[in-house]
Amino acid sequence: MIENPFQRFPTRVIQIGDLPMGGSYPIRVQSMTNTNTQDTKGTVSQAIRMIEAGCEYVRISTPGMKDVGNLKEIKKRIRAAGFSTPLIADVHFNPKIAEIAAIIVEKVRINPGNYVSGSRSQVSGSRIPASGVSVIASEAKQQHLASDRQYFDQLSSRLAPLLRVCKENGTAIRIGVNHGSLSERIKERYGNTPAGMVESAMEFARICEEHGFRNLVLSLKASNTRVMIQSNRLLVARMKAEKMDYPLHLGVTEAGAGEDGRLKSAVGIGSLLADGIGDTIRVSITEDPEHEIPVAYGILQATGVRITKTEYISCPTCARTLFDIQESIQKIKERTGHLTGLKIAVMGCIVNGPGEMADAHYGYVGAGRGKVNLYKGQTLVRKNVDESVAVEELIGLIKEGGDWREE
Q1: Where are the alpha helices (DSSP H) in 124-224?
Q2: Fewer CB atoms < 10 Å away: N or C end of the chain?
Q3: What is the pLDDT of residues 248-281, one digit of tens each?
């Protein structure tokens, strides 16, 4: 197998139920239920469909006390059905809900912009003047620092009960910052910008560290792919500067439906995965959540960070192609689609074929009219094979190489 030359941002391993995240573990796929959480049967049924589609963490929207009160029964039924998939409570407004949920589920997600009320700075004019009398600037800076410390202490006090419960129960936390829900304090100082999103997440991460809590995941999401990408790149830079290494959850929030949602998710998530950034992903499309899972795995496969099916490299063909490449690749897919982890190249001719399929495990390359050359890696092993038997010859070569398995 060809090793991936791209380096993943090294993050700490955190435990979420019995499925770890971060470090060298595979990039995990998750999604969220969109049922009424008080509808036990509907939520459990949807969660099971998600799991059977390949969802590795199931997030459950938990907006109110009645919803969190039903989490225990939902979890009980999912476990009774034979599934140990970790559950995540998605909490926004009420800190008490997060504290109760943390006793029941394996992970809790909170949003800094909504979690803490009274977030506006108590000192007016919190931006430090760029010009003016130095004494006034100095006084403003002192007020600014005092306000920051006071705010930090208040936030720390409010977050402490949740951190204590999570420590006691081995529950992980995701600090989930959304571009559209930054606190007034952050927006006053940074504007509605990637820098503001990063600072919002870092404030909470620093508080967690002060309390000795590090079972933490961070995420910065936006519906604008450029904002989402820039924010996460900046967050990684800030974490490196402050010697933090928390796993990152990636997603383009409210990406839309159909092709639009899939393209935006591929651009946003895929760009960061190609940078080596990301430990878990959620594709947010306006469809039933089980439809998100194949898209997520497709993005992981396309970026080469988690191979879950056979990958095919094929050229668009040109006048140099002297055999029916479209028919050939269809036949090859039908015969080899179950061979997880293999990369097979089907190329029209030898002009670019061998070079463009450099990291393929096997190659099927046009050699002339109705003739095909077969490769194992970069080595030509069978020359001028007749097109009528070339697919069977390729299957034989895969079997000889020890890479075949029966369906």
Answers
A1: 134-169, 184-190, 194-210
A2: C
A3: 999 999 888 899 999 999 999 999 999 999 999 9
